[in-house]
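ligand=magnesium ion
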Amino acid sequence: MIRLENVTKVYPTSTRPALDDVSVEVERGEFVFLIGPSGSGKSTLLRLLLREDVPNEGNVWVANWNVGRLASRRVPRLRQRMGVVFQDFRLLPNKTVAENVAFALEVIGKPRHTIRTVVPEVLDLVNLAGKADRMPSELSGGEAQRVAIARAFVNRPLVLLADEPTGNLDPETSTGIMTLLERINRTGTTVVMATHDRQIVDSMRRRVVELSSGKLARDDSRGVYGTGR
Amino acid sequence: MLFVWREAFAGLRRNLTMSIAMVITTAISLGLLGAGLLAVRTIDRTEDLYYSLIAVQVALDEPTSAADPDCSSPVCAGLRDELEANPLVSGVEYESRDAAFERFQRIYAGQSILQLVRPQSLPATLRVTMADPLRGTEIVEQFTGRPGVRNVVDQRSTVQDLFSFLGSVRNATFGLAVVQALAALLLISNTIQLSAFTRRTEVGIMRLVGATRWYTQVPFLIEAVVTGLVGAVLATGGLVLGKIFFLDRLLSGRLLANTIPPVGMSDLLLYVAPVLVVVGAVIATLTGYATLRLYVRT
Ligand SMILES: Nc1ncnc2c1ncn2[C@@H]1O[C@H](COP(=O)(O)OP(=O)(O)O)[C@@H](O)[C@H]1O
Ligand SMILES: [Mg+2]
């Protein structure tokens, strides 16, 4: 589903590569933690998968797309098959919960009758059916993140990318988010989650890919966060 | 489809003050352009009117005028034959002193000037209509000072002042239209940038969930085009009011009546209005497109 082949990314403003000759492969339906300290290149890797940036060297594959070489007019098609959530939720403050989720479908031209049936379904999946008409400012952090996940998942993506989704949440709320991501993973969606939350990684016992200063440091199929830190 | 329209109108409402300023500036610019187009039309009409009437007048001297009721004297007939043979000339008409006096009486019927004028003070004339009205001066040069000729007048040069007045009205309106258009362009461009800035979070999310460039940018273009169209409609409305309450009165007033033909409502609605709509829409679209290209990377 995802394959990086000797990927190197150097930002124009810095000399040190953010990713340095990284090769890694993720199968369809896997759940992968991408770990490493701040600045190790986790977000950069996710940005390359989304084609928010292109690698300087190597190839990035998602499904059958050679992402780094994709013509920019084909990028929307790639992104329509991927979902992404961030630490800061990125909800639109002037839209309700349901509208925020519907927005993701509206802007890719989905017909209204589809939107009307699919949005309640996904809100149900994230246990927010009762809060469809709330504004984001009326939600807790955990609820806001679940809305963001609903929005990322509503178009049934092949891959869900999560960049430190629990970074702003307390441990209990984080557990709820992890349960939800696992549920999404069980539908067959490949999940890649960047995090430096040791407790979560250790409790889940999933595949762990570790980056250190942009280099691939470790790839354990049922890993823990690590001992040295 | 619905989405882009909703976003466009939300954008116009959000920056309402800017939107109004943008529409008004566009309307003024287009209104001036329309006024200039009407001036061009009127000048053409006026020229047509005058060129069919005006001629080169060859006035005959006193002895010839006094002696010749039908241009049979050798001097008059010679001049007439020579004029008729000239390729620049399309027709020659003789007006005797008595005929001139009759016409004079008709024109100034009931006015005191009639008492002062006697047939003897009017010359007989050869009215020369030109095949090309613009080349009257050549006839003036050829026939001035010839035996039997008192003077030669190209009427065209006497109406030239009127045309140059109308011409400068036209140039001034076009000049102002260009300046206003520039202001309108900058305002439209600025409003789009502002609009894009207010919507940056939204557009960011749109790009992330796979919205195409079309979905992210068309709302801005619609904003611009709606501005152009509303501006064109307001400009046309302004011109209609200007015609009814100002131009019609001016041109039917004592000073200019029968000097400049009136501006027709059909000219305004069938010729000027469509031009304004097209120009407004095209310029707004191009401005919007250029702004998105240059300033808004989404
Ligand atoms: N837009 C950018 N421009 C320049 N350098 C960047 C940019 N984004 C990230 N970096 C640098 O690249 C490295 C990796 O960053 P990042 O991928 O954000 O790491 P992580 O997500 O693991 O914290 C860091 O050294 C960071 O300073
Ligand atoms: Mg990061």
